[in-house]
Amino acid sequence: MNYYELQINLHSFDAWHDIFVAYLAEIDFESFVEEAPYLKAYIQESSYDGHQLQLVLNELQLKGALIESYDLSLLPQQNWNATWEAQFEPVLINEQLRIIAPFHSLSPFEGIEIKILPKMSFGTGHHQTTHLICQNMLSLDLQNKRVLDMGAGTGVLAILAERLGAAQIDAVEIEEWSAENILENIELNQCQKISAIHGGAEAIPQSDYDIILANINKNVLLEQLPNYSKVIKSGGLLMLSGFFQTDAQDIRSAAAQVGFEWLRTDLRENWAVVLLKKIP
Question: Largest Cα–Cα distance in the chain?
């Protein structure tokens, strides 16, 4: 599988790179690397739409002279994997969780350690949204809980759920190659309670989940919220991320319409995670 790499040289990088990420994610760019003043964004060759990209760049440029230059190139998969490995740094969250790659050689760690094969799948802990959900999971009681991880990416959240005592985890991922990556990471971390499922909301295998985790973009979350409401227990917890602070109220409002009450919102560099509870 080949990917396009979009490299944008931004004016005022700190003020605007998150906004560019949000816009590009809406047109199926799925991975991002920030090397100020450059933002690199990656999209599957089969998903790339040059017309959509031009519309997005034109819209953003209307907000000001934001783009110094940009370049688009086709990056073969074998080159991508080597690049991703070179850029994958260990992630430490709250001194309680460390996410590493198999090729890292580090000193022993007393907390929870998860190994992730650093392929194209989203969810290595580097992005603010994955960090936010992992951080919030560390404060929840997952003992003997049934968990649904939607848009599971690498499976890192499902693996953390098992480490935190969950009894059963269904990790649903719409990209086939990413679902295969989940299986690799399940084996790498010797997990026994995770089922990797290829598909979207229609592939959710059961109901009565205690906790649902979904780190997906805003539009997909809004579309799938009714599905989550149908398969979660009364009093169950729903944790959503993948959107900006400015979108959190839209998420809360839509969730309220399908029976969820808001518990809290946490932020990290303008990205948000929302924790909700299914109203009995």
Answer: 53
Looking at the chain, the whole-number percentage of residues with pLDDT higher than 70 is 92
pLDDT digits (tens, 9 = 90+) for 110-150: 899 999 886 655 556 667 888 999 999 999 999 999 999 99
CA-CA-CA-CA dihedral for 251, 253, 257, 259, to nearest 10: 70
Whole-model pTM over 0.85: no
| 133 contacts 215 by C-beta, under 8 angstroms | yes
Q: Is 125 left (phi over 0), alpha (psi -120 to 50) or beta?
A: left
Cβ atoms within 10 A of the Cβ of 122, count? 23
53, two tokens: 């990209």
Domains assigned to the chain: 3-83 (3.30.70), 88-278 (3.40.50.150)
Q: Tell me the pLDDT tens digit for each residue of 164-179.
A: 999 999 999 988 878 8
74 burial (CB, 10 Å; 0-12 / 13-18 / 19+) is: exposed
